[in-house]
């Protein structure tokens, strides 16, 4: 509409626009955030016919979370709806176990894994079991099997899930060649002197180390100091891999804050040397890696480099890049 009024004797016209429907203006609502479907994932551990499953599923949306679980065990049994169900299979075999998870917004994600189980040879039988401890791609597996009265150990064999196997040895040490976070089914089979066997299988998750390269602009001595830590993994390690190899911190989550280590025996590195620093994730109880271990690097030669490390274990607020904070300082 148009209005007229006088200003110092001059007729002035003003044009006012209003939005249709009244209100004298308009506003644009921000677009609704796009919901990302959750990522379904799980770990499992089996002894003979009985398996325990643990969801390690995640949802990357802020304020959202995995809210529902549905497990199909591949044997026709009813679905389970908890995060950590146990299930006893009736007969031995390989089953396609599927986990479907849903977030609070109703989006779903699904993953399937092949799970092999074997029946126990009762009575007077072996009962296979083992523990696993991994640092980055290097894992140590220890046979913890038990034997009924009248059942005596005869042999064992390992299948590491990547095509490699090993007889007899315990502990068994194996290095994987994964280029990213990867899950392997590791199987231990034990036999007693009567020819009865038992099998235990566990899903093992490994990931390569996170790496940072630091260039020394002048000939220098170099130290590494733990500034802080906020992690609980066993054997989170800081290692120099070039031009020398040196384990700087062997158990970073538990090494003392302010612990300082001289590199190369406190000998001088030549100008132009590139230090390759690897940080390796260790083992955190029954938890498994859900993302690649990662380093963020800040600083420079003059002031020192700060490495903030996230070891890849999940939980609220992860990744938070405060699992290990390391200062690398060069002194010309």
Describe the structure.
Helices cover 0% and strands 49% of the residues. With 332 residues, it is mostly beta strands. The strands form seven sheets. The chain has a seven-stranded antiparallel sheet with strand order 6-4-3-17-16-13-14, with no helix packed on it. Strands 22-19-26-25-24 form a five-stranded antiparallel sheet, with no helix packed on it.
Structural class: mainly beta
How do the helices and strands follow one another from N- to C-terminus?
EEEEEEEEEEEEEEEEEEEEEEEEEE
Strand order of the largest sheet: 6-4-3-17-16-13-14
Approximate helicity band: under 10%
Beta-strand percentage range? over 45%
Q: What is the terminal separation in angstroms?
A: 77 Å
Give the strand tally: 26
Quick overview:
The chain has 332 residues and is an all-beta fold. The protein has no helices and 26 strands.
Output the keywords.
332 residues; mainly beta; seven-stranded antiparallel β-sheet; five-stranded antiparallel β-sheet; 49% strand
Topology:
Elements: E1 2-7, E2 10-15, E3 42-47, E4 50-55, E5 66-72, E6 86-88, E7 93-103, E8 108-117, E9 126-127, E10 130-135, E11 138-143, E12 146-147, E13 153-159, E14 165-167, E15 172-175, E16 182-192, E17 197-206, E18 210-215, E19 221-229, E20 237-242, E21 246-249, E22 260-262, E23 274-280, E24 294-300, E25 304-310, E26 324-331
